Amino acid sequence: MTMEMTLPALLAVIGCGLCYAGADFTRKSASQHAGPAMLVAIIFTAVVPLYIVLFFASGNHVFSRDYILPGSMNILSNVIANIFFVRAVFTSPLSKTVPLLSITPVLTALIGFFFLGETLVLLQWSGIVLVVLGILWLYVPPEKIFGFASVWKNFISEAGAKFMCVTALFWTLAPVFDRVALRHVDVPTHALIHFTVSSLLLWLWIFLRGGFKKNPLPKKEGWKIISVVALFYACAMGLQMLSLKMVYVGIMESVKRVIGQISAIALGRLAFGEEITLPKILGVIAMCVGVPLILLS
Question: Residues 117-157: pLDDT tens digits?
Fold first, then answer.
């Protein structure tokens, strides 16, 4: 099947990247007002009414049993990834965590090479090297452009980095399950099932771990920013599902990751006063070049 990059497809892909960047930025602020499971449960529950409307507005309500397995795996991957994402941005700067999501195409490529017998061309290996180099640069001391000897120590000391690596692993899987699931149901149906079941699982988890006594709801001042997160996230997920209908996973992921990396550095500085260093800039440039090389070669 051939997919052309039409104007609607381009707008959907760019919009998806921008909305994810907005969700990343606002989730860091929202993480000050609720625990990871509670925050993700609220966000997922808040977007359910939107997808109920879209579901009934669409004309295609066909459901196939073949959807159940990829749909379930997509739900599991996305819930775990989101919880660890919130933990990551709560404990560490955006500019040292969000760019780590560039490891997702590296993991996908290496899994395919080592376990599925897929072939990687020279450009893809070059992209892998650039992404790894970019990640190393994130943790190089500001005053030493090539101070790679300190990378492991700095990485280990940054608690959010380890959490974001878990997120990257599960978000490596989520778009693949998305694409398989969408062969069997329409976008609104998939979105409604995804967020409804995810919400129920998260609220069940909260109940089993002590309910609201041990997992308190946000206070009044926290609800505004959480509402903004929910709006960004709903738009991002909807545009991602729409994008996957029109373009290949590689194109969507490339644009999303590049926008996310640049936004993490810029918004981290503007909103949270995070330091912009030459090694960070070099790291983001390397990853912005490396990710498309892996996904589009």
Answer: 888 999 999 999 999 999 999 999 888 888 888 888 989 99
User: What does the block give as tokens for 15?
Assistant: 């919009």
Please name which of 136, 131, 135, 130 lies closest in space to residue 148, comparing C-alpha atoms: 136
Q: Is the dihedral of CA 163, 238, 285, 124 positive or negative?
A: positive
Contact 235, 256 (CB under 8 A): no
Contacts 24+ apart (CB under 8 A), 255-258: 255/13, 255/14, 255/16, 255/17, 256/13, 256/16, 256/17, 256/20, 257/101, 257/102, 257/104, 257/105, 257/287, 257/291, 258/17, 258/288, 258/291, 258/292
d(CA 58, CA 189): 9
pTM of the model: 0.86
Q: Find out whether 176 and 253 touch, Cβ atoms under 8 Å.
A: no
pLDDT confidence band for 1 (50 / 70 / 90): very low
